[in-house]
Hints:
single chain; alpha+beta; 2 domains; 9 strands
Amino acid sequence: xxxxxxxxxxxxxxxxxxxxxxxxxxxxxxxxxxxxxxxxxxxxxxxxxxxxxxxxxxxxxxxxxxxxxxxxxxxxxxxxxxxxxxxxxxxxxxxxxxxxxxxxxxxxxxxxxxxxxxxxxxxxxxxxxxxxxxxxxxxxxxxxxxxxxxxxxxxxxxxxxxxxxxxxxxxxxxxxxxxxxxxxxxxxxxxxxxxxxxxxxxxxxxxxxxxxxxxxxxxx
Length: 220
C-alpha cells in the first residue's frame, strides 16, 4: 500500500515537471528561435511604436465628441463613428466595446433572433451611409456579408475582397488617389486561401491602412 502511494506521488511529480514545466519551456524556446514573430502574436510596429497585431482586428473609428466637449457614451461604452479615410474592419460585438481582444467570443444568437436582425440592419445602414456617397450605385443587396455579420471571434483582422472593393471608392476620394492605385494596394495585402484551397481570400485591414498612411504620409 505504502509502496503504491510513493510510486503514485513520484509519478505525479515527474509528470508535472516534464509536462507542466519542461515541455512548455522547450516549445517556447523552439518557437522563439524558429518563428519569433508568430510566437509573439505577429505584432506590428511603426517607428518603434506598437500599433496592433496582424492577426487581431481593431477599430478604425473615432470617438464622437458631444456638445460638452467630452466623448459621448451609451450604456457605458464610447460612441464612435467610422473614419472615412480608412478601410473599416468587420463589425465586432465584444463585451466592453468593439474589438476587445480580452473578450474574444462568438454570439449564440440564431439567425432568426430579433437582436441579430436589429444588429444586421444597423450595420447595413451604417455601411451604406459611409460608402454610398462615393459609390452611388451601391444597394443593400450589394453590401458584403462580412460588412453585416460579426466573425466567430469578433476579432477578424481581415475583410473580404468584395468589402474592400466597395470601400475603395471612398478611400480613393478621401485620400485623393486613383481607384486603380487603391485597388492595387488591396491586391497587395490580400492573403491567399489557407493551404491554397481552404476558405476565402482576405484583405488585412491594418496592413492596408498602414500602407495608405505611408503612401499619403498619414494625411487623408
